């Protein structure tokens, strides 16, 4: 959640300072971080898609010690 | 040699994929830097198998001569010497080189894991898909650059948005498949997530892709260079002229004001959605002390 505020702040600053390279790049990098966090969050607490639902038993592999 | 257990295999594959995701992360930063420094049109041809940069003075002269044939030099950078040219060349060169490196770091361990029988069929297909998507991203990148080599020395904002969106989709899928591996390694049941917030978290990731794409249109049109006030635009909360071009839907992709306005609105909506989801998950899983957790 904090990262979302950081990202919004970076976006507004980028705009106010008329797109300096470093701020604009930081804003894009912020997007990449927020997005990764959202994906991890969705994977952890969201419903899983059936296509991903492969359990260890279904894999045709021999677990070896 | 000791044979790795099933769980150790999953962890190894998971880490390998996360490393690839981190490399994609760096790739997107490099791509953004290439765009912002206007370096992207310095390499005017696409030779995927030609890896070395120009090394000698004569090779540089040749590369610079090729650049001089195209509109970015002829209409904008006529003042450039070969030394200035070298400055805009290296970022595009590194961007392309890093792309190939990702391909290699993805492919070589994949073959290793696959030959050892660590990768089952569904996972193998996902990897093949990811590899194909990565390759397509290279082609799309060149297709984008090609749009900046005719008449107008600016790449198409549509192709730029497609190139960025594909990068984010790739990034998302790699992270997802990696997390699947870690979940298998922990022995979690794949069908029951640790906590269930319904489809919202997944929906938020899709909405985020929309916001990213709208941001790509802002970048593609340099639409962030106007209306540099917040929250007002042109002195108003909702500026006049959002639909000044016709047909009306063209404004979403071509009108600087509308494109920037959309990015603002979509981003604020996304931030609100994330805040709501955060509050909901806190209420459900971190209940106030003394109260029983809600189911």
**Strand count of chain B:** 0
Average pLDDT reading of chain B: 87
Give the low-confidence spans of chain A. Answer: 48-65
What structural class do helix, strand and pairing data of chain B support?
mainly alpha
> Can you give the helix content of chain A as a percent range?
55-70%
What fraction strand of chain B? Answer: under 5%
What can you see in these coordinates?
The complex is a heterodimer of chains A (65) and B (295). Chain A is an all-alpha fold and 65 residues long. Chain A has a domain at 2-43. Chain A is built from two helices and no strands. In chain A, helix 1 packs antiparallel against helix 2. The termini of chain A are far apart. In chain A, 28% of the residues are buried. Residues 48-65 of chain A have low confidence and may be disordered. With 295 residues, chain B is mainly alpha-helical. Chain B has two domains: 1-192, no CATH class; 193-295, no CATH class. In chain B, 65% of the residues lie in helices and 0% in strands. Chain B is built from nine helices and no strands. Chain B has helices spanning 6-36, 57-67, 71-76, 82-115, 121-146, 157-186, 200-220, 251-254, 256-285. In chain B, helix 1 runs antiparallel to helix 4 and helix 1 (6-36) runs antiparallel to helix 6 (157-186). The N and C termini of chain B lie far apart (48 Å). The mean pLDDT of chain B is 87. Chains A and B meet through helix 1 and helix 2 of A and helix 1, helix 6, helix 7 and helix 9 of B.
